[in-house]
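Treating backbone geometry as a discrete language has practical consequences that deserve illustration. The amino acid sequence and the backbone structure tokens for this protein are reproduced below.
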Amino acid sequence: MKSGEFQPGRKVPSQTELEEVTGLSRNTVKKALDVLKAEGLLITAPGRGLFLAERPIIES
């Protein structure tokens, strides 16, 4: 996200797709998505999926 490869508002692959692409377990992918949602980096659009939040990333 920080590199600009993923633009704000872009749809994020589904949890299942992320599991397949990364080879990570369902639990690991779910935890990672939960952390990103809690940090406000992902937003859920009911019936549409997960999207990157439209907010700037501030570097410290």
